[in-house]
Amino acid sequence: GQIIKSQGGKQAVELSASSLRIVGECPGDTFPLAKKRHSLEYLRTIAHLRPRTNTIAAVARVRSTLAGSIHKFFQGEGFNYVQTPLITASDCEGAGEMFRVTTLDIDDVASLPRAKDDEGKELAGVDYAEDFFGKAAFLTVSGQLGGETHACALGDVYTFGPTFRAENSQTTRHLAEFWMVEPEMAFADLTSAMDNAEAMLKACVGDVIEKCDEDLEFFGKFFDKGLKARLDKVVSKPFVRCEYRDAIKYLQEEIAKDPSKWQFPDVEFGTDLATEHERWLAETKFDSAVFVYNYPKSIKAFYMRDNDEDGGETVNAMDLLVPGVGELVGGSQREERMDVLVEKMKELDLDVEDYWWYLDLRRFGSVPHAGYGLGFERLVTYVCGIENIRDAIAFPRYPGNAEF
Description:
404 residues, alpha+beta, eight-stranded mixed beta sheet, three-stranded antiparallel beta sheet, globular
């Protein structure tokens, strides 16, 4: 055919066909995508075909642009890209919600090797010394600990890869398999981490605004009418920074006006902020992306550095909260003092022997360092204005679903 000036008003040119050849037939009577707007819930049941829809195709393009922008930003800042292992014996978060990796024949329970005490008496558990890796192994929840090994040698590094969490959650914000962006910076403190996270997000969102204008228009029309203005604000407006103690005070003052409006009205120092608290701070109190920092030690991970100012009651940690999502980034200055770190691990009943290599980073020449983790799918939902994180990844994994 020939390309000619379009007779219609929605495009400049069109193809005037002289012949037509069908490359791949598609039977209309059984094709599961009808000429109508399907629900996102239905599309998840046909995840192998849903990229053919306008919505999921647009998400895929924005996701691709964001991934490229993340690499471009960190490479431009002189960071080295490190690929950390997916199989690990370490629980980075100390939460215990990990998928086990084993080659033992769990279908034949009688054949499983039993753990024994020093006297050779059988114990209740399995002897993982007989397993493939010679010890219990899991899918990683974070690449951070591995990233620290290279930050202590190369300086600034980042990881960007899949992570896993066996949390029985059916919320719109959680997946069992998700991607994390985790930079680690040597000779850096919490302020450095917040500065870097803000610059990275501004750069990535700016790239999407520049390269994915049609997709953003689509999301603005069908999902979030205020999306473009919100993204423009991310790029142009400085992020707010608020201490955790102040955030609690603001929440207490607001909740006191009408506690019945809140699902979790009991807020005090030591409360792990719920999504409704995070979103109120970002959407109503500040109408901006906001860093909440200096969290109580009791609700944060073992590797976060104790604050000297309050005797270690809080740690040098931060979360970045954004409108529409809540927490998007979590980070901290790491605890570089070996004696303090060992004590914190013991308090959490973590086996110090499992982390011998991590402690070596402190034992053999430590430096102050800091970093953070960005949940990539949460970033995709935020930039696209979609509500459910299961639509931000090609094949979502969550409790009861590992199809495709």
